[in-house]
Amino acid sequence: MKVAFIGLGAMGRGMSARLVQAGHAVVGYDIAPAACEALVQAGGRAVASAAEACEGAGALIVMVFNAEQAQEVLFGAGGAAETLAQGALVIVSVTMTPAQMRDFAERLAARGLLTLDASMSGGAAAAEQGQLSFMTAGSDEAFAKAELILKPMAKRIWRLATECGMGSTMKMVHQVAAGANLAVAAEFTAFGARMGLDPATIFEIVNNAAGQSFMYQMVGPRMIDRDFAPQGPLEIFVKDLGIALEAAKAARFPLPMASAAHQLYLAAAAQGHIAEDVAAVIKVYEALAGITVKRKS
Question: Alpha-carbon distance 150 to 170, whole Å?
């Protein structure tokens, strides 16, 4: 199938390459020339606009940063929704509010397009390895058409509902777990370093004991090696925890741990680290304690 892919960054790069390897004809667009070149090197084709990528495509994957960018891709001047043929599938893997996802699905349906709410998680390495976890919602027709596209990219695909919005709801809940988990990892790593422990030893012991976590296994090495080149920018958790907190406010539901974690990411952003990797959240504790966290050996 010809698959249009918009957003070829840290996640999109690996995802699009997996689709090429599975035999799909992938045509992509990204505002960054280097991202487009990576798709070409993987065997796909890069074009000059989202609309051009969608010409003749049976499916479109939208993998941009936020709902505002997705809005522009789909419904902006010369957007994808105007180019896709009726019956084409739009797979939206952008973290946004459930209400925004439902609105997109309704507007796309009015144009004769199918939508799958396909939030996912796993990180850039999982994207390259085809080991992402997809949290999906959408009609039977949309899911049936999407399944063969998602499988090359997925470790597991969950189908949560037949109406768009519940995939985004699950991703919102997941990001509370991921964001708070990483905030605590930064805290105990910095605390241990302040108390004289080697951060590398902290990492090894915690991940071989009851405190282990996927987030610490994935991001911890970047913390202690001071590798803050953005594999996943810290801004992700400023945005995603903000989405969860707004939803919780509307539902009159308390999220004290998520709120505390959100403040930590906001502090990192205020210190100028918002475009750095999520591992840079540890710099908040470094600034508070007057220390530098790095492995001793």
Answer: 18
Rounded to an integer, the average pLDDT of 191-210 is 97
Among all residues, which ones are annotated catalytic? 171
Using DSSP's 3-state secondary structure scheme, residue 253 falls into coil
Handedness of CA 7, 27, 16, 84 (dihedral sign): positive
Determine how many CB atoms are found less than 10 A away from the CB of residue 76: 15
- Read off the DSSP letter of residue 67: H
Can you say whether the dihedral through the CA atoms of 174, 11, 29, 31 is positive or negative? positive
What is the rounded distance in angstroms from the CA atom of residue 130 to the CA atom of residue 153?
4
Domains and CATH numbers, the chain: 2-164 (3.40.50.720), 169-289 (1.10.1040.10)
Q: Note whether 136 and 167 are within 8 A (CB).
A: yes
Q: Which tokens is 137 given?
A: 């919602």
Give the tens place of pLDDT for each residue, 43-96.
999 999 999 999 999 999 999 999 999 999 999 987 899 999 999 999 999 999
Q: How far, in Å, CA of 24 to CA of 192, rounded?
A: 48
CA atoms within 13 A of residue 14's CA, in its CB half-sphere:
17
Structure tokens, 113: 């397009």
Cα(first)–Cα(last) distance of the chain, in Å? 50
Strands 132-138 and 154-161: parallel
Q: Which two tokens stand for residue 178?
A: 């991921």
Give residue 189's pLDDT band: very low, low, confident or very high (50, 70, 90).
very high
